[in-house]
Amino acid sequence: MKIFLLLLLLGVNGAAGVTHSMKYFKTASSGIPNFPEFVSVGLVDEVEFVHYDSNTKRAEPKQDWMKEAVDQQYWDTQSEIVLRQQQTFKGNIDILKQRFNQTGGVHIVQVMYGCEWTEGTKEVKGFWQEGYDGEDFISFDLNTQTWIAPTAEAVITKNKWDNNKAEIAQAKNYLTEICPQWGKKYLQAGRSSLMRTDRPSVSLLQKSSSSPVSCFATGFYPNKAVLFWRKDGDDLHDNVEEGEILPNPDGTFQKSSDLDLSSVRPEDWGKYECVFQLDGLKDDIITKLDQSVIRTNSVPVPPSEFPVGPVVGGVVGLLLLTACICGLLIWRRRVHGYQRGLEVDTELE
């Protein structure tokens, strides 16, 4: 079976201090028309490389490098594994509906698991969290090797899983050993794409003269980036609103940081600058706060130059990714994710 034999011989080399991740997101749903009952996606360094849903019943590559890295036997095996998970998740929805005294309606079970590792060190972080209808249901504490139940309805599951020492040992081994091992193999297979560095375009945008000025960076990769404002060389925190890093349709990312100008005197504009820093770029990208370079709605800009496409495309891409990964619901708490290769029994009862 041709699965990364060459990569095992070559090894994986990376820059010390760089953190990588592999995560799997699995979503089971009921009562949602025209949406797969089960979706599973895998991401390495936030890039989707494998996808499965209950309509196709096939695990499929999402990147060209993944198609070349493994053979058909790999995909057949993965399809069988995830199909078994699909059946388990379907039963879990019925169990949880009973636990919460529910009957019909829309219900969603979500699972996120995986790991992060830092090149040049032995540091590995494993994550496993499950949710129901947008709320935390149960999570695994790798340090204590116990399950955490934030709700009374999850206590039954916690007690069952805590008492299964064999599966706890299997989960620990997967999150700290198997997950980073396979993550490094996937990373090496997609190295030319995943380890690249794309420099962004950075613009200053403003809706009107009374609106905040938005420093907008788009087209960068990887997503390990920082965007901030500073005055006279000092970082600004007051009157600044930072945006999330969002995906663009082409696999790159975008980010914005808004500066409220209400307390900025015109004569002080030259003291302000927007700074963009990207993992892999040696130099910072600095954009001075200058009225002449700000793009506004009142100043026509050729469509090929104004970054509206990436903004809209990024939002659409984010919505599609959220729908597929999170099953139309977003956990109220931001949590790290997870993966598949692990055959731990996750039946709730």
TrEMBL record:
<dbReference type="InterPro" id="IPR001039">
    <property type="entry name" value="MHC_I_a_a1/a2"/>
</dbReference>
<protein>
    <submittedName>
        <fullName>Class I histocompatibility antigen, F10 alpha chain-like</fullName>
    </submittedName>
</protein>
<dbReference type="InterPro" id="IPR036179">
    <property type="entry name" value="Ig-like_dom_sf"/>
</dbReference>
<keyword id="KW-0812">Transmembrane</keyword>
<dbReference type="Pfam" id="PF00129">
    <property type="entry name" value="MHC_I"/>
</dbReference>
<dbReference type="GO" id="GO:0006955">
    <property type="term" value="P:immune response"/>
</dbReference>
<dbReference type="GO" id="GO:0009897">
    <property type="term" value="C:external side of plasma membrane"/>
</dbReference>
<comment type="similarity">
    <text>Belongs to the MHC class I family.</text>
</comment>
<dbReference type="Pfam" id="PF07654">
    <property type="entry name" value="C1-set"/>
</dbReference>
<dbReference type="InterPro" id="IPR013783">
    <property type="entry name" value="Ig-like_fold"/>
</dbReference>
<dbReference type="InterPro" id="IPR050208">
    <property type="entry name" value="MHC_class-I_related"/>
</dbReference>
<feature type="domain" description="Ig-like">
    <location>
        <begin position="200"/>
        <end position="274"/>
    </location>
</feature>
<dbReference type="InterPro" id="IPR003597">
    <property type="entry name" value="Ig_C1-set"/>
</dbReference>
<dbReference type="InterPro" id="IPR011161">
    <property type="entry name" value="MHC_I-like_Ag-recog"/>
</dbReference>
<feature type="transmembrane region" description="Helical">
    <location>
        <begin position="311"/>
        <end position="331"/>
    </location>
</feature>
<dbReference type="GO" id="GO:0005615">
    <property type="term" value="C:extracellular space"/>
</dbReference>
<dbReference type="InterPro" id="IPR007110">
    <property type="entry name" value="Ig-like_dom"/>
</dbReference>
<keyword id="KW-0732">Signal</keyword>
<feature type="signal peptide">
    <location>
        <begin position="1"/>
        <end position="17"/>
    </location>
</feature>
<dbReference type="InterPro" id="IPR011162">
    <property type="entry name" value="MHC_I/II-like_Ag-recog"/>
</dbReference>
<keyword id="KW-0472">Membrane</keyword>
<dbReference type="InterPro" id="IPR037055">
    <property type="entry name" value="MHC_I-like_Ag-recog_sf"/>
</dbReference>
<keyword id="KW-1133">Transmembrane helix</keyword>
<keyword id="KW-0325">Glycoprotein</keyword>
